[in-house]
Specification:
The chain is of the alpha/beta class. The protein has 7 helices and 20 strands. The strands form 3 sheets. Strands 13, 14, 15, 16, 17, 18, 19 and 20 form an 8-stranded mixed sheet that branches. Strands 4-3-6-1-2-5 form a 6-stranded antiparallel sheet. Bound molecules: FE2/S2 (inorganic) cluster. Residues 302-305, 307-312, 340, 342 line the site of FE2/S2 (inorganic) cluster.
């Protein structure tokens, strides 16, 4: 799908807890902007000194209850884009974004009556979950357990909004705040496997459906519990988010290293220089950079295919990539744009890489 560019006017900017801001966006073309809860938008920002940078943000609003889409952005220390949005984009400002993207939630098949929804989120992962919860509450009579993990009570985004939702939907919407650094009696301690098991087995109302958004390790623990009580795979929906790990302030690339995989683009344009020759291919964001090139009949260098030999190393020149482990690379190498293409996945719609000759 070709990415469109749509201009939005920021008609409101709301300060949330924990250095997060909600931006209310109105398309300047005055055309409808149909999106689903759980989807995200990619913003195209021209930031002085950094050129065009793209970032994806989930919608925090519900199309059933909000006139215009909202995105909520948590300011990340050292993050070029989140800092720019928090500090420089005010009411009346303009933003350019894509059409809505993502398939975390399908309003046509996921909204069920007499269902119990368990929604697990951690930190900023709450954004799409909060949007989905509002839609399900509005569109059905089902129950939702909203289980939200944070470091401490100051980090809870949407605390007041969640309280209001509990009041609006008594007996159907239950918020459970778990804090890893808890010193207050009215909050629960860190979410443990046993808690997850207890939640998932506590429901007496109809079938279950589970949504999870948080770092990969957090999601894995919850998924393991769903397996242990045989919740069908098709009833489990997950999305991971990440913090930027290596954002080169003077270049146009970002390398994410760690468990938290950024959103996966549906289609990616890879521009790769192999032996001095520039080639372009299109692929799914599900393939590693190396697999994508091999699948199209090209001959990039590789050997072990396991992150242990450096044979497949290339430099990211533009765009973003994600590798779960740093493997044989060094921190310094990653700062300079190195990735192991047998391990790295593209995470932007376009990426430029260069193999050493
Ligand atoms: S082929 Fe050995 S690290 Fe990628």
């Amino acid at each position: 799908m070709k990415t469109q560019k749509i201009e939005f006017l920021v008609i409101d900017k709301i300060k949330q807890a924990n250095d997060a801001y909600t931006f209310v966006l109105k398309p300047t073309n005055n055309l409808p902007f149909p999106y689903h809860s759980g989807q995200f938008i990619t913003l195209f920002l021209d930031i002085e000194g950094h050129g065009e940078i793209q970032r994806s943000y989930s919608f925090s609003s519900s199309p059933l209850t909000d006139q215009y889409p909202h995105i909520t952005v948590k300011k990340i220390d050292g993050g070029i884009v989140s800092t720019h949005l928090a500090q420089n984009i005010q009411i009346g400002g303009l933003l350019v974004g894509s059409q809505p993207l993502g398939k975390f939630f399908d309003p046509y098949s996921h909204i069920e009556e007499n269902c119990t929804y368990f929604m697990f989120s951690a930190g900023s992962g709450v954004t799409p979950i909060y949007s989905i919860a509002q839609t399900i509450l509005e569109a059905s009579q089902s129950n939702i357990y909203f289980i939200y993990s944070n470091k401490n009570s100051d980090s809870i985004i949407f605390f007041n909004e969640l309280e209001l939702l509990e009041k609006k939907y008594p007996n159907r919407f239950f918020v459970k705040h778990h804090l890893s650094d808890n010193s207050q009696l009215n909050f629960l301690d860190r979410l443990e496997s046993q808690d997850i098991h207890d939640y998932l087995t506590s429901s007496s109302k109809g079938p279950l459906r589970v949504y999870i958004c948080g770092p990969k390790k957090y999601s894995d623990v919850i998924i393991n519990e769903t397996k242990s009580i045989n919740i069908p795979k098709e009833k489990i929906h997950t999305e991971s988010y990440t913090a930027i790990v290596h954002e080169n302030l003077s270049s146009e690339f970002v390398i994410h290293i760690g468990d938290d995989r950024p959103a996966i683009p549906e289609e990616v344009l890879i521009k790769a220089k192999i032996d001095g020759e520039l080639i372009e291919i299109k692929c799914s964001g599900e393939d590693t950079l190396l697999d994508a090139l091999l699948n199209e009949g090209h001959s990039p260098p590789f050997s072990c295919m396991a992150g242990g030999c450096m044979a497949c190393m290339a430099y990211v020149k533009k765009g973003e990539a994600w590798q779960e482990e740093i493997n044989i690379l060094t921190e310094k190498g990653v700062e300079n744009g190195q990735v192991l293409t047998c391990q790295a996945f593209p995470t932007t719609h376009e990426i430029e890489i260069e193999y050493e000759e």
